[in-house]
Write a structure and sequence with these properties.
alpha/beta; Rossmann fold; eight-stranded mixed β-sheet; six-stranded mixed β-sheet; 22 helices; globular
Length: about 600
C-alpha cells in the first residue's frame, strides 16, 4: 500500500480555557481516497477539518497530537511555510460557496489569483484555469471568466469553488458540507465532480457531512464522530451494513427511504456541549443499550476487524443485531378532498423576470402536499405567494372558498392568523435579541389573543407541544441547538392555531437525526390540529414519510402532480425521473 497523504494521530483541540473540544482523534487518508467524516452538529467535524490546514477558530488551540500532510507536520511549520502549504498542498472547500468567492471580483481574476499566489505565471495560470473549469463541467470561455459570482446559481458557484481548489493540484482537500442546501440534481453533479477529480488527480479528501446518504455515494471509508471523538471508523460497506456502535445504527435508522416503507426514527436528546460532557461514554445518556459501566468509564478504541475500529463496550452485541427498519405507519385512506387552499392561473415574478407561469394547485383540509423541484424552479416563490410574502403576482387564490388577497398587509388579522409560514433557516428567522418566550408569544400579541397571563400559558403549551420544556422560554436563540431553534420556529407558527402551515425547506440544514424528529413532530401536529400543509423540499426521499400528494415544479410550472407513491414509483415526466435518480440513498456497496 502507498503511504498515506493525510496522517492524523492523537489530535487534541481545546479552548483557551482548557475545555476539551476534540480528543484522541486519529485517521489516515490515502492517495485518491475519500474519507467521510460524519456526525451531528457540535461533534467536532469542522474543527478537525480545519486542523488539517493548521488552523483553529478564534479562542481555540491545538493542544497535542500531529497532523501530517504529504509527510510534513503542519502543526510544526513556521507561519510563512504554513501559508505556502495551504491551497498548494492542502486546500479547503467551505459549505457556503459565496464565502469562498469575492463578490466584487470577476471569476477569471479570482481563479487566476489562487494560482499566482503559489508562483504560477499568468499565461500558465490561464491555461490551468480553463482546464479546471472544464473538469467541473463549466464553460471556460472569456465571457464566463468575466462573470461575477452573483451571476451564477448556487451549484455553479460551488463548482467554481471546486475548480479554484483543484487548480493548484493539492495533494489533500477538506470538503466541509459542500452540498448542504443544494437541490438533489446539483448535489449529484457536485458529488460526481468531487469523486472524479479525486481519482483523476490522486487527491486525498476528507468529506465532512451530517448526511449518511451522501457518504454512501462518495466515501471509501467512514469515520463517525460524537462529542469530539471518533467512535467508529471503517470501510463504507462495513459501516453501513454492519455498524458496531449504537450511535451509527441510530443515524442510519434516521435516513429517509425513497420506498416510504421505513419509519424515520430520531434520537431523543442532543449531543452534549463541550463544557457539559458526561463521564464515561458521552453517548450513554441517549443510548438504549447503555449499562452502568458506560456511565463510569470511557470505552477505548479497539480493532474489531481489518480497518474497522470502534469505541463501545457492547460492540459484539450491536454488530450481531439485524438491521431491521421500523415499518412506516400505514397511510390514511384517501377521502374526498375539501380544498383549504386553491390556486388558479397564478403568475408571479420579480420585476421584469417571470418566475411562475399559470400555476394551479389545491391543498385539502388536513392534507400535506409536497412541492419539489430544483433550485430556481419557483417552489419558494409559490409558497411565499400563498403566505402573503410576495406581491408581484396575478391569478386567483382562495382560502376556504373565499378570495385570499395578495400580500399579507391586504389580509385581515384572522386570515393572517390562519396561514403561518416556517422559514428554512432558524438561525435567521429568530430574533437574537428576544427570548424564546418573546418570540413564540409575539403572534399572540399581534393578534390580540388573551391577556398577558393567558399568553404565558399558551406559550408554554406551544413549547411543550414541540417537545421543549417551558424553561426554554427564558433562553435566547443562541443558547439553543439548530434543532431546538427550528422547534421554536414551529412553536411560533402553531401558537395562534392556524389552519394552514407552509414549511419552506425546514429540514435542509439539519442533522438526519434532528430531521427525523422534526418530521415526526410536524406529522403529529398535523394529526392533532387538522393542519393543511404545503411542504417545500428538494429531498424526494423525505416526502414519502409525510406527504399525501406531490407537485413537481420545473421552470415555474407544475409538470407532474399526484399521490406520492404513484409519482415516485411510476413517474411520468423525464424531469421527475431524473430527480428521483439523483436523490442520494443508502445503497448496497
Amino acid at each position: 500500500m502507498s503511504e498515506p497523504v493525510v496522517d492524523v494521530r492523537s489530535l487534541h483541540i481545546e479552548t483557551l480555557g482548557g475545555t476539551e473540544i476534540v480528543d484522541e482523534v486519529g485517521f489516515t487518508i490515502g492517495p485518491g481516497e475519500v474519507l467521510g467524516l460524519v456526525g451531528e452538529s457540535g461533534s467536532g467535524k469542522t474543527t478537525v477539518g480545519l486542523a488539517l490546514l493548521g488552523h483553529t477558530r478564534r479562542g481555540v488551540r491545538i493542544g497535542a497530537g500531529r497532523v501530517h500532510i504529504a509527510g510534513r507536520n503542519v502543526l510544526r511549520l513556521p507561519p510563512a511555510e504554513l501559508r505556502a502549504l495551504r491551497g498548494a498542498t492542502v486546500a479547503y472547500v467551505p459549505q457556503d460557496p459565496s464565502s469562498a468567492l469575492n463578490p466584487a471580483l470577476r471569476l477569471g481574476r479570482q481563479l487566476l489569483e489562487s494560482l499566482r499566489s503559489h508562483g504560477t505565471g499568468r499565461e500558465a495560470g490561464l491555461v490551468r484555469v480553463r482546464e479546471a473549469l472544464t473538469e467541473v463541467a463549466l464553460p471556460n470561455d472569456d465571457a464566463f471568466l468575466r462573470r461575477y459570482p452573483h451571476q451564477l446559481s448556487g451549484g455553479q458557484q460551488q463548482r467554481v469553488a471546486l475548480a479554484m481548489t483543484f487548480a493548484p493540484r493539492p495533494q489533500a482537500i477538506v470538503l466541509d458540507e459542500p452540498t448542504t442546501g443544494l437541490d438533489v440534481t446539483t448535489q449529484a453533479h457536485v458529488l460526481r465532480t468531487v469523486s472524479e477529480l479525486c481519482q483523476h488527480h490522486n487527491t486525498a479528501a476528507l468529506y465532512i457531512t451530517h448526511d449518511l446518504a451522501v457518504i454512501a455515494n462518495i466515501a471509501d471509508r467512514v469515520a463517525l464522530m460524537y462529542a469530539g471523538r471518533i467512535v467508529e471508523i471503517g470501510p463504507r460497506s462495513t459501516f453501513l451494513d454492519r455498524p458496531a456502535h449504537p450511535y451509527a445504527r441510530r443515524l442510519i435508522a434516521a435516513i429517509p427511504a425513497m420506498s416510504g416503507k421505513q419509519a424515520l426514527v430520531g434520537i431523543p436528546g442532543s449531543a452534549p456541549r463541550p463544557d457539559s460532557r458526561p463521564a464515561g461514554c458521552a453517548f450513554a445518556p441517549r443510548c438504549t443499550m447503555a449499562e452502568e459501566r458506560c456511565t463510569r468509564s470511557e470505552p477505548r478504541e479497539r480493532a474489531i476487524a481489518e480497518d474497522h475500529d470502534v469505541r463501545c463496550f457492547r460492540w459484539q452485541e450491536v454488530i450481531t443485531q439485524p438491521m431491521v427498519p421500523r415499518p412506516a405507519p400505514k397511510p390514511t385512506p384517501a377521502t374526498e378532498r375539501v380544498p383549504t387552499i386553491a390556486l388558479s392561473g397564478v403568475n408571479a415574478g420579480y420585476g421584469r423576470t417571470a418566475v411562475l407561469f399559470d400555476v394551479s394547485l389545491e391543498v385539502g383540509t388536513g392534507e400535506c402536499v409536497a412541492l419539489v423541484g430544483e433550485s430556481g424552479s419557483g417552489k419558494t416563490t409559490l409558497a411565499r405567494c400563498i403566505g402573503g410574502l410576495h406581491r408581484e403576482m396575478t391569478g386567483e387564490m382562495l382560502l376556504n372558498g373565499d378570495p385570499l388577497p395578495v400580500g399579507a398587509r391586504g389580509r385581515t388579522a384572522a386570515t393572517r392568523q390562519n396561514v403561518q409560514y416556517i422559514f428554512q433557516s432558524p438561525y435567521q428567522s429568530l430574533n437574537p435579541r428576544r427570548t424564546v418566550g418573546g418570540i413564540v408569544g409575539q403572534p399572540l400579541r399581534i393578534f390580540g389573543t388573551g391577556r398577558r397571563s393567558e399568553r404565558g400559558r399558551l406559550v408554554r403549551e406551544a413549547l411543550e407541544r414541540v417537545s421543549l420544556p417551558g424553561a426554554v422560554a427564558e433562553r435566547y436563540p443562541d443558547q439553543l441547538s439548530g434543532g431546538e431553534r427550528q422547534r421554536v420556529a414551529i412553536a411560533r407558527a402553531i401558537v395562534s392555531r392556524p389552519g394552514v402551515l407552509i414549511c419552506d425547506e425546514i429540514t435542509s440544514a439539519l442533522d438526519v437525526s434532528v430531521q427525523a424528529a422534526i418530521i415526526d413532530l410536524i406529522a403529529e401536529l398535523r394529526r392533532e390540529m387538522g393542519l393543511s400543509l404545503l411542504f417545500v423540499t428538494h429531498n424526494l426521499a423525505l416526502i414519502s414519510t409525510i406527504a399525501d400528494r406531490v407537485a413537481v415544479m420545473s421552470a415555474g410550472r407544475i409538470i407532474e402532480l399526484g399521490p406520492v407513491r404513484e409519482v415516485i414509483d411510476t413517474p411520468a415526466q423525464p424531469y421527475t425521473q431524473r430527480l428521483i435518480a439523483d436523490t442520494p440513498a443508502i445503497v448496497s456497496v
